[in-house]
Amino acid sequence: IIHHSGGGWSPAGLRGRGCEYVTQNFAPRTDQTGRCSTPPRDFLPISMDTACGSDPPQSKKVCVIGAGMAGLAAARELRREGHDVTVLEQSGDVGGQWLYDPRTDAADPLGVAAPVKVHSSMYASLRLISPRQSTGFTDFPFCPKSGRDDRRFPGHREVDLYLKDFCDAFGLMDAVRLNTRVLRAAMTPARRWAVRSVDLGVGECDGADEKKLDAYVDEVFDAVVVATGHYSQPRLPSIKGMETWRGRQMHSHSYRVPEPFRGEVVVVVGCGESGKDIAMEIRGVAKEVYLVAGSMEAVTPGLSKVLAKHSANLHLRLEVERLCEDGRVAFKDGGGSSSSVAADTVIYCTGYSYSFPFLETGGAVTVDDNRVGPLFEHVFPPSLAPSLSFVGVPRKIFAPRFFEIQARWVAQVLSGRRALPAEEEMRRSVEEFYRARDAAGVPRKYTHEIGRREPTVRTLLRDHATKLLIDSLIVVALIGGVRACSTWTISGRSTATSLAWRGGGTSCWGRSCAA
Question: What is the pTM of this model?
Answer without folding.
Answer: 0.79
